[in-house]
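INTERNAL AUDIT FORM
Audit reference: QA-55
Scope: verify that the stored structure record matches its stored sequence.
Auditor: D.O.
Record contents follow.
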Amino acid sequence: MTADLLTLTQWLSPAFPVGGYAYSHGLEQAIAAGRVTDAGGLCDWLSVVLDHGTGRVDAVLLCLTLNGADLADTARALAPSRERAQEAEDQGRAFVEAVNALRGTAIAPQPLPTAVGQAARLLDLPASEVAALYLHAFTSNLVSAAVRFVPLGQAAGQQALADLHPLILNLADWAATAGLDDLASGAYGSDLAAMEHETLDVRLFRT
């Protein structure tokens, strides 16, 4: 355990003022439409989001940014819908404001994955570790949304999160050595759910 690892854990914890609890990444729409109804369905949905969707793309953007690339505009261009862009931009802005206040830095507002990547340059941590904790925080937030809205029991939600740990670790290790050519996604159901959510009549989450 190091001070830098504790710092990263603080930045990615639910207590950090990013407001991640307000976003479901289209999961609310999937639950409302009956596509996710239990822990098994949640694991299936999140596995695709991680391995073929936002998880994969965010991990690559984060690692490349950590290694010195400037990809904020690329991250914006890759957002597949208005709400996805809003989700990344709003959380990234809040994250940067909090980190700048804590560290006296002047990181510019930008989407969350590149914001975390740039801030993590301040820390002496391997890219795979930063990516793994980022993906874990992202997944944990969606599991929490499902626990509230499916609803799932707390134990079922935590089991779903634990079941996704191997995928998170493998994806983080891969992303640490990935390049720009690896930026691709194919989670069409998740992307469409995010678009459909824009017109959902009654909703608890902003996305």
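Auditor finding: record pair retrieved intact. Residues 127-149 form the longest helix (23 residues).
Action required: none
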